[in-house]
Write a structure and sequence with these properties.
This protein has about 450 residues and is an alpha+beta fold. It has 9 helices and 14 strands.
C-alpha cells in the first residue's frame, strides 16, 4: 500500500509540475522575445530619426546618433535601410556579411527568427524586425536584428537549473512523504502484532474493542473478530456434535448387533457388515474429538507447546507404548493446528494401539529438488507391519484406508490420508528395519 501511494503521489506531482514548468519556460521565452522586440523597435525609431538628405539629395545617417553597438564588427546588433533604388544604408557591424532583402509595403511590419552570422567562431541566431516606412515622402524598408544566441544560452541554463531544482524538490518531497507514511502506517503495528499472535495461536481474536487501532481499520478489525468468533463457534459445535452423535450411537449399535444375532445366517452377515462400517465411523469421530479437543481454527502447530500434551494422553491410553520424539523445540508448522494435531494423533494412536513398544517420531524440515522447503513427519514402529502388495493398494488414489481389515493398522490412516491430500502433501508407507511399519508424511511449507 505504501509503494502504491508513493507511486501515485509521484505521478500526480509529475503531472502537475511538468505543465507548470513548461508554462514557466514559455512565459520566460515570451517575455525575452517581447523585450528584445521592444528594443529593436526603439532602435528602429532612432535610425529613422537619424536619417537625412545631403546637398546632393543622397540619404545618409547621422553616425553620432547611432550607438557604438552598430559600429563594432559582429557586435550582434545590425540594421539595413534600403529603398530598392540607390539607397542602401547598412551598419558597420555587418562588415562583409549580407543582410536579408525584405519587401514590405509602407506601414507593414514583420517579426521572425533566422540563422545569423555563422563561422569565424560565431554562431548567431537573429531575432529580426522589419517595417515599411516613409520619410519625407520617400519609401524605405527598415530591418533591425539582434543576436539572441546568448539569451538562448541563458534560457537553456535556466531550464537545466529549473529541472535540477524540480528533481531536488521531488526527492525532498518523496523523503518527507516516506517519513509521513511510515509514521502513519506505524499506527498499524498493533494490528500487525495481534495478527501475528493470532497466527501462532497466542490469542483468539484481534481485540478490536481495545480501541488501539486507527479509525480507518477499526471496522475491519471488528468484522474480523466477529467472523473469528462465529467460525470458532461453528467449528466447535460441528465437532462437538459429531463427537456426541458418535458417542450416542454406540448403544444403539450394540442393540442392533444383538438383534442381528437372531436373524438367519444370510441376513445376519449382511447386517453385521453394515454394523461394522457404522462402528468404524463412530470410532473415527470419537477419535477425532478425543485427539483434537477444543477447536481453535487459524492456529498453527507449535511443537513445544502442543506435542507434549498429546504424548501424555497417548501414554495414559497405552501404558505399554513408549514414544520417542525427535524435533526442534522452536519449530512451528504452518498448517492448521487442529489438522496437524489430528494427523499426529492418528499416526501415533495406530502405532501405540497395534504395535506398542518403542515408537520413533521425527519431525524436521527437508528440501525438494526445486529448492522448496517442506516438513517431514515420520512414525516408525516395531509391530507386525503391512505386506508390500497391500501397502501399494492402500496408497492408490481413491482407496479408503479404513475399508480394509488389516492387522497392524486402524482407521486413522483414512483421516491422515484426507488431511495430507488437503495440503497437497505426500503419504508413503514402507517397511521398518528389522520389522514393523514406517509412515512418512511430506507437507509443503
Amino acid at each position: 500500500m505504501q509503494h502504491q501511494l508513493r507511486r501515485q503521489w509521484m505521478i500526480t506531482l509529475i503531472v502537475i509540475m511538468l505543465p507548470m514548468l513548461w508554462l514557466a519556460d514559455f512565459g520566460v521565452r515570451q517575455l525575452t522575445t517581447h523585450t528584445v522586440l521592444s528594443r529593436l523597435q526603439h532602435d528602429g525609431d532612432s535610425l529613422i530619426a537619424a536619417m537625412s538628405q545631403n546637398a546632393s539629395g543622397q540619404w545618409q545617417l547621422d553616425e553620432s546618433r547611432l550607438g557604438s553597438l552598430y559600429q563594432r564588427v559582429y557586435s550582434g546588433h545590425y540594421f539595413r535601410i534600403r529603398d530598392g533604388q540607390e539607397t542602401d544604408l547598412r551598419s558597420r557591424s555587418l562588415w562583409d556579411k549580407q543582410a536579408p532583402t525584405i519587401e514590405l509595403a509602407t506601414g507593414a511590419d514583420k517579426t521572425w527568427q533566422q540563422q545569423g552570422i555563422h563561422g569565424d567562431q560565431l554562431d548567431e541566431q537573429w531575432l529580426s524586425w522589419a517595417k515599411g516606412i516613409r520619410v519625407q515622402k520617400h519609401d524605405f524598408v527598415l530591418w533591425v536584428a539582434e543576436d539572441i544566441a546568448p539569451l538562448n544560452s541563458q534560457l537553456n541554463y535556466y531550464r537545466l537549473t529549473a529541472v535540477a531544482l524540480l528533481i531536488l524538490a521531488l526527492s525532498m518531497l518523496m523523503l518527507i512523504q516516506r517519513r509521513q507514511l511510515n509514521l502513519a502506517f506505524a499506527r498499524l503495528a498493533p494490528l500487525q502484532k495481534q495478527l501475528r499472535e493470532l497466527r501462532f495461536g497466542e490469542c483468539d481474536d484481534l481485540n478490536a474493542t481495545s480501541g488501539a487501532y486507527p479509525q480507518e481499520v477499526q471496522p475491519l478489525a471488528e468484522e474480523i473478530d466477529r467472523l473469528l468468533k462465529l467460525l470458532q463457534q461453528r467449528v466447535s459445535r460441528s465437532r462437538n456434535a459429531l463427537g456426541n452423535l458418535a458417542h450416542e450411537m454406540k448403544r444403539p449399535l450394540q442393540q442392533l448387533k444383538m438383534l442381528a444375532e437372531k436373524l438367519d445366517p444370510v441376513h445376519q452377515t449382511e447386517q453385521s457388515d453394515a454394523l461394522l462400517r457404522l462402528s468404524r465411523l463412530v470410532e473415527r469421530e470419537l477419535k477425532r474429538a478425543r485427539i483434537v479437543g477444543m477447536s481453535s481454527p487459524g492456529r498453527q502447530l507449535r511443537l513445544a507447546d502442543d506435542l507434549p500434551p498429546l504424548l501424555q494422553i497417548l501414554t495414559k491410553m497405552y501404558p505399554a507404548a513408549h514414544v520417542h520424539a525427535d524435533y526442534k523445540k522452536e519449530a512451528v508448522l504452518p498448517q492448521d493446528h487442529d489438522d496437524l494435531l489430528e494427523l499426529l494423533g492418528n499416526l501415533l494412536d495406530n502405532a501405540c494401539k497395534y504395535a506398542g513398544g518403542d515408537i520413533a517420531l521425527t519431525i524436521h524440515t527437508y528440501q525438494t529438488q526445486d529448492k522448496q522447503w517442506g516438513w517431514l513427519i515420520r512414525v516408525c514402529d516395531l509391530g507386525p507391519g503391512i505386506p508390500q502388495p497391500l501397502r501399494e493398494h492402500l496408497l492408490q488414489r481413491g482407496a479408503r484406508l479404513d475399508e480394509h481389515n488389516i492387522k497392524g493398522n486402524g482407521l486413522g490412516l483414512a483421516i491422515v490420508s484426507d488431511i495430507v491430500e488437503s495440503y497437497a502433501g505426500e503419504l508413503t508407507l514402507s517397511a521398518n528395519v528389522p520389522q514393523g511399519l514406517c509412515i512418512q508424511v511430506r507437507l509443503p511449507q
